[in-house]
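Hi W.,

Here's what went into the run:
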Amino acid sequence: GEDVEQSLFLSVREGDSSVINCTYTDSSSTYLYWYKQEPGAGLQLLTYIFSNMDMKQDQRLTVLLNKKDKHLSLRIADTQTGDSAIYFCAERGDGNQFYFGTGTSLTVIP
Amino acid sequence: ETGVTQTPRHLVMGMTNKKSLKCEQHLGHNAMYWYKQSAKKPLELMFVYSLEERVENNSVPSRFSPECPNSSHLFLHLHTLQPEDSALYLCASSQEGQGNEKLFFGSGTQLSVL
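Here's what came out:
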């Protein structure tokens, strides 16, 4: 299967920006996704980007895609305590399979 | 509420027990999935059903047996599990054939095998 890699942990202070990074291996991926998992819940789609785009902005969220380096990032502006969660990067490969990373656990310090 | 409901939320079972996990989706989707979530590991795709036909079985041990009786329901039958099978089991659904397909997840069943 494809590899999707993320760091496991990130801590930021409330009000700062958070940047969560992801690398992937499947260059044919057409869409890349960010999912959020709050404690005791399943994964919820946060945002996605089409592979022919470099950037997508959605309120406090900015997704950057560097297709050459196969690098995806999620920036959360003005991070709040409610943003504390696990964030998963995912790519959609062949055969309708979605490949996920380990998730990055974001802790927001008040 | 994502439209995907899993029961039970928590399950504790011994290695000799037989139990089943249930998933129901109310979104009218045509594909359903089982994922395994273990700490510090990538989310692991176990099974995929598309139009009620199994299309993916990622080398999952036979002690896990999926069943998809219709497009809205998915089961995972468990028997003679091992302690290392303890994990969060997530069900998801999607609508295939739309290009930008998105997965919708249930809240999961936290399984502990003693």
